[in-house]
Amino acid sequence: MLDGVKSLAKGMGTTLKALAEPRDTYPYPEKRREYSPRFRGKHMLAKDEEGHELCVGCGLCEAVCPAHAIRVVAAEAPGDEPVSWTSRYAVDYEVDLIRCIFCGMCEEACPTNAVRLTPFNELAAYSREDMIADKEELLRPAIRK
Ligand code: SF4
Ligand code: SF4
User: Fold this and answer.
1) Does any ligand 1 atom lie closer than 6 A to the CB of residue 67?
2) Domains of the chain
3) pTM over 0.85
C-alpha cells in the first residue's frame, strides 16, 4: 500500500515537472515554427516586372530533376500577345509534389531564374492528382493563411 502511494507521488512529481518545462510542440496552425532561410518548399514560376513569364520552356529543370517530377511543354509564343519575355514559353508546366525531393536542382539549373522554391511547405491533398501543381497554380505562389 505504502509502495503504491510512493509510486503515485513519484509519478505525479514527474508529471508536474514536465508541465513546468517549455513545450517542444507547437499549437499548429495558430503558431508555426521558424524555418531556415534556406528552406526549400513548394515551387513557383516567376514573372518579370511587366508581367511576362520568365520561363522560356527550355526544359533544363526537367532534364536535371533527379526525381522526374517536372514536365515542361514548350511552344512559340503568340506574336500578338507575348506571354514570356521572349518568343518561347512553357505552354504547360507541372511539378509532381509527391515525387519531388525538394533538392533545388531545378532552381539551380534555370537560366532565367523562373522556377523558384518558396518557403511554403503546407502540402496536403486528398488525391494524388491534387499534388500535381500545374502552371496556373505555380504562377500564383501559395501564401500561408
Ligand atoms: S526540387 Fe529537385 S526533385 Fe523537386 S522538382 Fe526540383 S529538381 Fe526535381
Ligand atoms: S523553369 Fe527555367 S529551366 Fe525550367 S523550362 Fe522554364 S526557363 Fe527552362
Assistant:
1) yes
2) 36-138 (3.30.70.3270)
3) no
Determine the pLDDT at residue 118. Answer: 94
Q: Which ligand is nearest to the CA of 68?
A: 1
Rounded CA-CA distance 4/130 in Å is 55
CA neighbours within 13 Å on the CB side: how many for 40? 14
Contact 35, 117 (CB under 8 A): no
Give the residue carrying C-alpha cell 514573372. 47
Q: Is 77 in the pocket of ligand 2 (CB under 6 A)?
A: no
Q: Give the 3-state secondary structure of residue 75.
A: strand
Beta bridge partners of 116: 44
Q: How far apart are CA 18 and CA 48, in angstroms?
A: 52
User: Is-contact 53 82, C-beta < 8 A?
Assistant: no
Q: pLDDT band for position 142 (50/70/90)?
A: confident
